[in-house]
Amino acid sequence: MHNNHEPSARNSRRNRSVTTMNKKGMELAISTLILIVLGIAILIALIFSITGGFDKFKSSTNPFLDSNEAQAVKIACQNACNNNVKITYCCNQYEVGDLNLFCNDSKLEIPCDIDCSEFSCE
Description:
It is rod-shaped and about 85 Å long. It is mostly helical. Helix content is about 60%, strand content about 5%. The protein has helices at about 10-50, 55-60, 70-80, 85-90; strands at about 95, 100. The protein has a two-stranded antiparallel ribbon with strand order 1-2.
């Protein structure tokens, strides 16, 4: 007669197969979870790119002077400084993107000795 409290060889094999199945099930759950997270990340990136989010990121990471418009203004202001043309350097206002700048604005990064505080633009 078998004692009900002692595991038989048959029960032992069944327990091992259940343990093996649980490990495989765990691996399946982890890989599925990783795929779901990657899918969500790709979906967010796709929505972000469709709505123009990357354009905003790109424009915010580009330096101010990378635009052709800003380079042209910088060259004109540098020429005005080199030729000591105070009326151009101190009084002309340039539109760069959505900014209105004078040549002595620090954003243009022009080294110049012209002092506009003592010059009247009238």
